[in-house]
């Protein structure tokens, strides 16, 4: 009887120790895995709400003023309707916005690039921007006229990111070996990335005006290739729940998709609360988005935001 | 030396087993094995509890997590679960809904939605999935009862010419079964989107004992005007009481099949006031169309009936619509979810809205200049520091 109970106890102890060893070993391994958040990692996240609230009053004020975004919109005469809508709506929330057009248009002010080729337009626009504004802005946002952007959410996203690091952010797509930012969702470059691009763009071997062997590569892909040579890699922007904040589709299109893929949780599954861009919008939809984003809201819901963004002067639709 | 150190227990166990095998004491071997299994199991349970606690604290990056924790839920148990939905952990954690929740308790609204058997899956379902849950009580009115949806079966038929019958019977039903459960009684269509929080803010300035009703005010045919049916309208408790009584005493009757007009005429007869639902800056809150139709200049042609019907001067462009809009009409299923997303989810971080609803009490006081003044004061504060 004694030998049996003692063997039982010994067995228990052995089992317990063995289990402890296995668990601790497994836990240590997992802990190690989550530590690696170096810059080359391809997913990039918005700052945590808690981190931001830990800033002092002075720091918040400083930050609200200090993040300055320069917007580049590439337009062509055929985009006149969208161009007008972008001018009247969200672009007023950029610290500075410039329309770079393929040719001179009398109706609106723009910087004329004298070329119809999108890649050449992009190169020229970035070059001119760097030369003129490298000391004034730290972040550069490039968009097409079919895109709607919420600059306040962009600033919040960039809040704790150091612009002297080479950032190249947006909605990324993988094409074979190349990961690039889809131009439809908008392209964000830090000043460091822009600096590096302005140098590599002079290298006609690595970053030619006519890229691709037989047919032309899309300009957003060409940009990625050139940037890659300078050590700048595309990163997909996500919120704290892993949802994309740069969208290459409109809210309508995303809702439609959500209605068929998960009809029980349409809005939850659709889009981020801190979305920065939507694309494929008609001019009318931009006006609806302005109202829906900057004005329409439910009474009695308040937020304790760490930053303050004032409405821009000279507009009545926000 | 280290080999010997780590080999204490396992080695002892091995020696033990050898002993067991040699002494052929099967019983001891079985108890040993049983003991080790128990020991392992107990230890595993303990560790899984400890580790679960740690996991809860870390933020989770799951994509579609419908049951994320909502930190303000624990503060409001008295809401009977009707406000707690669409709770996604990360984005709504810093949202303060105290004022909205206070109004939910103070201004009780019963909503009834006009629908029919053929529209339950096409339309009513999306109403149920979005704004309807924010009513203190929601009822779907149909010609047939449906226990699953659920819908109330009225003694009426379907069809455009039956709308007023359905309306009369619906209000009758609400009066007979839910009169004491709410202060205000809202009628909407299954293609109307209603923003309950803003409706409560509007109604909070009035008493349910007042004989009054609100909606998008039209001017023709009725001296004090009448409310557009599609944009939705809301009756005070007293108004509902008088409306139902009027049919019993024959003061009002089914005079026509044009629901909103007929109801408006009855309201005038029974001295229920047609209220002014515009916000403190004079902008309309109930809308007979979707936002796009009102916001885009020139969308509705000048020959359209709408321009002659509006009681107050109709505005197109950004001035059309209050920031605190209450309703939109002709909203299809996709637009229901789009509005839900734009209103309750997407927002510009840190943005200081131009319109401040709590500033003025009458339309003449609140002006754009006032709001701009406040903004400039804040701007000064920002540049000073």
From TrEMBL, chain A:
Major subcellular site: membrane
Annotated Gene3D superfamilies: 3.90.550.50
Membrane topology: Single-pass type II membrane protein
Cellular component terms (Gene Ontology): membrane
InterPro entries the record matches: C1GALT1/C1GALT1_chp1
GO biological process: protein O-linked glycosylation
Family annotation (PANTHER family): BETA1,3-GALACTOSYLTRANSFERASE, C1GALT1-SPECIFIC CHAPERONE 1
Family stated for the protein in its record: Belongs to the glycosyltransferase 31 family. Beta3-Gal-T subfamily.
Protein name (database record): C1GALT1-specific chaperone 1
From TrEMBL, chain B:
Reactions catalysed: an N-acetyl-alpha-D-galactosaminyl derivative + UDP-alpha-D-galactose = a beta-D-galactosyl-(1->3)-N-acetyl-alpha-D-galactosaminyl derivative + UDP + H(+)
Transmembrane spans: 29-51
A GO biological-process term: angiogenesis
Major localisation: membrane
Gene3D superfamilies in alphabetical order: 3.90.550.50
Compositionally biased residues, Basic and acidic residues: 365-385
Entry-linked InterPro entries: C1GALT1/C1GALT1_chp1, Fringe-like_glycosylTrfase
MF GO annotations: glycoprotein-N-acetylgalactosamine 3-beta-galactosyltransferase activity; metal ion binding; nucleotide binding
Protein name stated in the entry: Glycoprotein-N-acetylgalactosamine 3-beta-galactosyltransferase 1
Organism of derivation: Amazona collaria
């Amino acid at each position: 009887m004694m030998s049996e109970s003692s063997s039982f106890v010994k067995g228990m102890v052995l089992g317990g120790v063995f289990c402890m060893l296995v668990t601790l070993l497994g836990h240590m391994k997992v802990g190690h895995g989550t530590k690696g958040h170096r810059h080359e990692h391809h997913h990039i996240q918005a700052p945590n709400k808690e981190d931001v609230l830990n800033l002092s009053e002075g720091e918040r004020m400083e930050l609200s003023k200090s993040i300055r975004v320069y917007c580049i919109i590439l337009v062509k005469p055929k985009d006149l309707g969208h161009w007008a809508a972008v001018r009247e709506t969200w672009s007023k929330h950029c610290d500075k916005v410039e329309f770079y057009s393929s040719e001179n248009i009398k109706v609106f002010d723009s910087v004329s690039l004298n070329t119809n080729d999108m890649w050449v337009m992009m190169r020229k626009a970035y070059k001119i921007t760097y030369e003129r504004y490298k000391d004034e802005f730290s972040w550069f946002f490039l968009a097409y006229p079919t895109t709607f952007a919420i600059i306040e959410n962009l600033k919040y996203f960039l809040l704790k990111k150091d612009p002297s690091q080479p950032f190249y952010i947006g909605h990324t797509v993988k094409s074979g070996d190349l990961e690039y930012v889809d131009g439809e969702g908008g392209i964000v470059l830090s000043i460091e990335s822009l600096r590096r691009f302005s140098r590599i763009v002079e290298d006609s071997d690595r970053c030619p005006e006519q890229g691709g062997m037989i047919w032309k590569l899309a300009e957003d892909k060409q940009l990625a290739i050139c940037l890659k040579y300078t050590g700048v890699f595309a990163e997909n922007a996500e919120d704290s729940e892993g949802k994309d904040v740069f969208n290459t589709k409109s809210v309508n299109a995303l809702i439609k998709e959500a209605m068929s893929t998960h009809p029980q949780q349409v809005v939850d599954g659709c889009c981020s609360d801190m979305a920065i861009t939507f694309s494929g919008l008609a001019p009318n939809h931009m006006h609806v988005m302005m109202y829906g984003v900057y004005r329409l809201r439910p009474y009695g819901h308040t937020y304790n935001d760490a930053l303050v963004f004032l409405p821009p002067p000279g507009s009545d639709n926000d | 030396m280290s080999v010997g150190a780590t080999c204490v227990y396992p080695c002892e166990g091995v020696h033990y087993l050898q002993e067991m095998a040699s002494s052929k004491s099967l019983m001891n071997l079985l108890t040993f094995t049983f003991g080790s299994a128990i020991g392992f199991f107990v230890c595993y349970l303990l560790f899984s509890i400890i580790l679960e606690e740690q996991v809860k604290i870390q933020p989770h990056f799951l994509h579609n997590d419908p049951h994320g924790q909502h930190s303000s839920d624990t503060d409001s148990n008295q809401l009977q679960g009707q406000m707690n939905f669409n709770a996604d952990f990360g984005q709504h954690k810093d949202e303060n809904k105290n004022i909205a929740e206070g109004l939910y308790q103070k201004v009780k609204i019963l909503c009834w939605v006009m629908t029919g058997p053929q529209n339950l899956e096409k339309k009513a379902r999306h109403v149920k999935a979005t704004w309807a849950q924010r009513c203190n009580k929601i009822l779907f009115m149909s010609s047939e009862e449906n226990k699953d949806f659920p819908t109330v079966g009225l003694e009426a038929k379907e069809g455009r010419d039956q709308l007023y019958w359905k309306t009369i019977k619906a209000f009758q039903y609400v009066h007979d079964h839910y009169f004491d459960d709410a202060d205000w009684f809202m009628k909407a269509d299954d293609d109307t989107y209603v923003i309950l929080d803003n409706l409560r803010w509007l109604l909070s300035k009035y008493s349910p004992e007042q004989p009054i009703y609100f909606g998008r005010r039209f001017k023709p045919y009725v001296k004090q005007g009448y409310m557009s049916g599609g944009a939705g309208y809301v009756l005070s408790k007293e108004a509902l009481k008088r409306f139902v009584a009027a049919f019993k005493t024959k003061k009002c009757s089914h005079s026509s099949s044009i629901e909103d007009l007929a109801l408006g005429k009855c309201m005038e007869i029974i001295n229920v006031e047609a209220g002014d639902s515009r916000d403190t800056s004079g902008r309309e809150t109930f809308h007979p169309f979707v936002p796009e139709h009102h916001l885009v200049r020139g969308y509705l042609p000048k020959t359209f009936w709408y321009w002659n019907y509006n009681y107050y001067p109709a505005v197109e462009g950004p001035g059309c619509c209050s920031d605190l809009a209450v309703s939109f009409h002709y909203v299809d299923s996709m637009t229901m979810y789009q509005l839900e997303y734009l209103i309750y989810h997407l927002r510009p971080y840190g943005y200081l809205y131009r319109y401040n609803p709590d500033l003025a009490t009458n339309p003449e006081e609140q002006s754009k200049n006032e709001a701009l003044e406040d903004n400039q004061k804040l701007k000064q504060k920002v540049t000073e520091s």
